[in-house]
Structures are given as C-alpha cells and as structure tokens.
Design goal:
Blueprint (H helix, E strand, L loop, with lengths): L17 H9 L14 H11 L6 H22 L2 H4 L4 H4 L6 H5 L8 H21 L2 H4 L1 H13 L2 E4 L2 E5 L4 E3 L2 E5 L4 H9 L14 E6 L2 H13 L14 E2 L4 H17 L5 H14 L18 E11 L12 E13 H6 L7 H27 L2
Parallel strand pairs: 5-8
Antiparallel strand pairs: 1-2, 2-3, 4-5, 6-7, 7-8
C-alpha cells in the first residue's frame, strides 16, 4: 500500500455539494432534500452498504426490490390520479437495478431533472419502509400489545355492552371505549412521511385507547382513577407529548371545591351534579389551544397522554446467571374526551377523515417537493 501524503488533488473537478453538506451540518431532514450526491453505481453500492445492506447477499437485493415496488404502489395509491401515475418515467418505475435510483437522484440538468425528482420521491418512501421493517419494537409487537392491554384491561371493565373505568374504588361509566390495537402499515408510513424526522420510533400511537365520558369533570376523575391505579404517574408520562385542550384545571379546581361535599353526600351516581359543574366550567374556562400537531382541526378537544411502559421480552440466549427478561420502554396513548368534544370530532374540521386528508396533503408535498408538484401540475 503506497504511503499517504497530504493532497487536495481530485480526479474530477474539485467542488463542494453545498446543499447536501448543509443538510448534514445543519440537520435538514432527508425528506426535504431535492437531490443526493452520488456520482455512479460504485458510489451507490457504497452508500447502500453503509445504509445497512450487504449486496453480496441475494436477500439484500430482494429486500431493496420489494421496498421499491411497495414505495411505487404507495405513491400511486395515495398521491396520484391514474393519469398522473403514467407520468412516472419507465426507468424509475422499473429500473434494471434499484440502486440506479440513487444515481438518478443525484444528477441535475435539464435532461435528467424529471428523472431525478421522481427518483427522489420513490427513495423517500423506500427510506420510510426500511425503517418500519427494521424497527425492533414492531417486530415484538405481539408481546407489546399483550402487556399494554393487560394493564388497561385491569382498569377498563365491562358489564354487558357497558364499559366502566375503575381503580377498585370509584367506577366511571363510559359512553364510548375505542381501542387501537395496531396502526396499519399504510398509516404508519403516511405518518412517517409527514414528520420532519421520519423514523418508526417516532410514531407514538401504534397502540392506545380513547375513553369518552358524558362530562369533562368525569375526564378529570378518570385521570385520578388512572393515577390511583398507577397506569399514570409523573415518571411514566412523556411530558413533552402531553396535550390538554379539554380541561382548564384552575377553573376545575375552584368548581370542584364548591361541589365536593354534595358529591360525597350522593347515594347514587351524581350525573346531574357533574353536568352542573360542566356548565360552570364552560363559563369560567380559559381557551386551551396548545396543540403541536399541525393536522389537528379547530375544535378538537381532548386530554391526550403518552405513557411509557416497560416491556419484557424473554431472552432466548440468556446466560445462566441472567434470570431477568430484557426490557425496553414502549409508548402508547390514552385519550380522554367528553360527549360534546367526541361529537365534534365526528364531522367537520375536527373529524378523523379531515385529519387524514391534511396528513396526505402534507406527506405528498414533502415526498414530491414543490419542484415536482409544479411539474406535475403543468402536464397536459
């Protein structure tokens, strides 16, 4: 091997890719890039190796090809009309080698810009697919779901069709109990693509429950019941992801003090008192607008808590001296709503359908980029 000597000599023109280096140095998300910085297939193979694929193994090539097909179908199904789907260049739709897309995504110039833009769009979706397929938590999803709902089933009980939330002492009747057992693959991918840092670990609502009560004060009492049952505590709640657009706790505290003795004196469930308290709360409450999700519609009100739970997975190759299962934290959501807020969530800007449409629009813009969107719109 020849000795190393300091040099700035380059085989080609000595230049810097300012956009790409800016993305690395200043933390620009890959989904917002308009091009890569690879010169040829040799570069593409090195890129794929560092990404995590050993291309000497046939299975790696098959995984890449499968992700390419899924990404293409996802784009066509979610972002394009049939006429627009026909605009995808054939070399992007069916490349001889999927790695060629990395080279196409790096080449700029009037003759190759369309191919670059479509290649970038497909690669962005493939990137999301690879994260989903290689997220260890999703691989252990059956065990996660069993342990999360094992805890929830201990406090959410049913008598016939009626569900109740109970901490073993108070028992709150639920109007609706919605249980999210799993977020579908298409939904996970859509959510990743509209997030700045699109990693599968950033999806917090794979699992969760929505508890709907008649009144807002019952939502407050539900928080107390969950806290007393130790499903919620200061140590297992992700404070940065807590969203409360339902309860003005200062106003609720004042009203609760006025009604506490009357509630305690009731021999039956005091639903009428709770409605009176809600009416006062509506008069005294300050607007609660904290919501970091740009896709949530106006009028959507809830208490949304992200809970961390330690999941235990049996270790098959554990050493004799290790008698404790491997654990990791998994986050799931508990959402509380009153009847009025729930009804508003079924139609209009606060509805789930409207929320999904806003998500699709954001994801489409980020995957395609403004440049490709303008090109698509300009086609006859």
């Amino acid at each position: 091997m020849p000795a190393l000597t300091a040099t700035l000599k380059s085989k080609g023109k000595f230049s810097l890719n300012w956009s790409y280096l800016n993305a690395i140095a200043n933390g620009v998300s890959a989904i917002d890039l308009g091009a890569l910085a690879l010169r040829n297939l040799h570069d593409a193979r090195q890129f794929a190796r560092e990404y995590g694929f050993d291309l000497d193994q046939p299975a790696a090539t098959q995984l890449i090809q499968r992700a390419h097909s899924e990404a293409l179908q996802f784009i066509i199904s979610n972002f394009l009309t049939p006429a627009q789907a026909a605009l995808i260049p054939p070399e992007v739709r069916a490349p001889d080698d999927p790695l060629q897309l990395l080279v196409y995504a790096s080449l700029r110039g009037q003759q190759v810009d369309v191919r670059r833009m479509w290649s970038c769009a497909v690669l962005k979706v493939m990137h999301g697919i690879f994260y989903i397929d290689n997220d260890l938590k999703l691989r252990h999803f059956h065990a996660i779901r069993s342990q999360v709902f094992g805890s929830l089933d201990a406090v959410i009980r049913s008598e016939g069709a009626q569900h109740f939330l109970t901490d073993g002492e108070i028992c709150l009747p639920l109007l609706h109990y919605d249980r999210k057992d799993n977020k579908g693959r298409n939904s996970i991918l859509l959510k990743l693509l509209q997030k700045a840092a699109y990693l599968a670990a950033d999806i917090f609502d794979h699992l969760g429950v929505r508890l709907v009560f008649a009144t807002r004060f019952e939502c407050l009492l539900a928080l107390r019941a969950l806290q007393r049952a130790h499903l919620l505590s200061v140590t297992n709640v992700d404070a940065g992801r807590t969203r409360n657009t339902l309860l003005d706790l200062e106003a609720a505290k004042r009203i609760f003090k006025q009604y506490r003795e009357r509630i305690a004196a009731c021999d039956h469930y005091p639903v009428e008192l709770l409605r009176e308290m809600d009416a006062q709360l509506a008069e005294q409450t300050q607007p609660l607008t904290r919501c970091d999700n740009p896709h949530s519609g106006s009028g959507y009100s809830s208490v949304q808590v992200t809970v961390r739970k330690m999941i235990h997975i049996q270790q098959l190759d554990a050493s004799p001296e290790q008698d404790y299962d491997v654990g990791f934290f998994f986050e799931y959501e508990i959402q509380l709503m009153d009847a009025d807020s729930y009804q508003r969530s079924l139609t209009g800007p606060a509805s789930h359908d409207a929320y999904k449409l806003r998500q699709v629009d954001t994801a489409r813009t980020r995957v395609f980029g403004r440049e490709l969107l303008r090109w698509i719109a300009a086609q006859p």
